[in-house]
Amino acid sequence: MRPNSLAAILVFVVGLGIGIGYFARGAMGTNHKTDTHAADLAAIEKLHKADIGATLTQNLAALNSLWSEDAVKLDAPGSPVVGLKALREMYEKSLADYPDFKVLKYSPVITEVQIVDGWAIEVGTVEATYQISAKDEPVRIRDKGVRVLKRQSDGSWKFAVVGLK
User: What is the pTM of this model?
Assistant: First the structure.
C-alpha cells in the first residue's frame, strides 16, 4: 500500500471518529459524563506521560511499550512502519546508527481528543529539540498531526496509528 493510500485511510478514520463523537455527544446530551469516559481520559493522560518519559530517555523497552501490537507509524523515515516487531527493529537500528542521539525537549500539545468504542483520536502538535551527537547543533522541530489510540483489555491505552508532519 502506498503512503498516499495510508494517509487517505487515516484521514477517513479521523473524520469518521470525529463525526461519531459529535453525534454521540449530541445524542447523549452535553451534561452526561460517565465514569468510563473519565477513566479513559486518565488512562490516556498516563500514556502521554509515558510517551514523554520514553522519548526523553530513548529507553527502547519504554518506547516499545507505548504501541499496540498492530500499530502503524506513518511519520517514520521512508515507508510506514507496521507492527510492534517492526517498530522495535526501527528503534534498535536508530540507536545503533546514532548512539549519541539525545532528545533535549519533547512537548506534545493535544488540542482535541475524541473517544468512541475503544478508540481515541487526538489532534495536536509536537515541539521537540534533539541532537544527533554532542558535536552537532540542536535541531528544533514543530510537527502537527493525528494519533489514533486503542484501548487495551486492561483499560490502558496504546498508540495504534501515529502520523505527524
Answer: 0.79
